[in-house]
Design goal:
Number of helices: 3
Largest sheet: 5 strands, mixed, barrel
CATH class: Alpha Beta
CATH topology: Inorganic Pyrophosphatase
CATH superfamily: Inorganic pyrophosphatase
Length: 203
């Protein structure tokens, strides 16, 4: 029986074992958890790095972009400091939505995205920012540098999705989107999440 090379025995953990990219905060590496075709909410299992089914989507709203996170980021004190209505970070890697002209139907993939803005979302008093980015080498959207460079309808769809994706009849929703911000603030959020990660997980 062939023995496994110990360097390749296990795959890298998508959150801790992959890098955020060498040109952060402008260009970031993204691990994609969900595609616009998913009707089930998937999230990374923080312990083992595989995708776990979180819940079926109850709302009829469809995720309007690729969705995942930036490796080696963490939303804690510094991220919360950039969100006036939050009392803490949500304790997760930094979420990112990536716009691509060509349909990408696979999840658990890596891509490079250019940061152009974000949504300042607060969920149950915790900062839960959604960075907005474009696929870096996209033939249509790759030239975008600011959130105003993509159609307003795309931003409205993102706003609507995240405002409603936790709606359950008879329950109060504690989600608010307090601000839609541009590339400068988005880069500060990325830098804050990188610094929070270094403080909590850095060696």
């Amino acid at each position: 029986m062939r023995r496994l090379n110990p360097l390749h025995q296990w795959r890298a953990h998508p959150w801790h074992g992959l890098g955020p990219g060498e040109e952060t905060p402008d260009l970031v590496t993204c691990f994609i958890e969900m595609t616009p075709f998913d009707l089930v909410k998937y999230e990374i299992d923080k312990e083992n790095g595989y995708l776990r089914v979180d819940r079926p989507q109850r709302s009829s709203a469809v995720l309007p972009a690729l969705y995942g996170f930036v490796p080696q980021t963490f939303c804690a004190e510094r991220v919360a400091d950039l969100s006036p209505n939050a009392t803490a970070g949500d304790g997760d890697p930094l979420d990112i939505c990536v716009i691509s002209e060509r349909p990408i139907q696979k999840s658990e993939i890596l891509l490079t995205a250019r940061v152009i803005g974000g949504l300042q979302m607060v969920d149950d008093s915790e900062a839960d920012d959604k960075i907005v980015a474009v696929l870096a080498n996209d033939d249509v959207w790759g030239g975008a540098r600011e959130i105003e460079d993509i159609p307003a309808a795309m931003v409205e769809r993102l706003h609507h999705y995240f405002s409603t994706y936790k709606l359950i009849r008879g329950r109060d929703v504690s989600v608010s989107i307090d601000l839609i911000y541009g590339a400068d603030h988005a880069r500060r959020v990325v830098e804050a999440a990188l610094a929070d990660y270094d403080e909590h997980y850095g060696v």
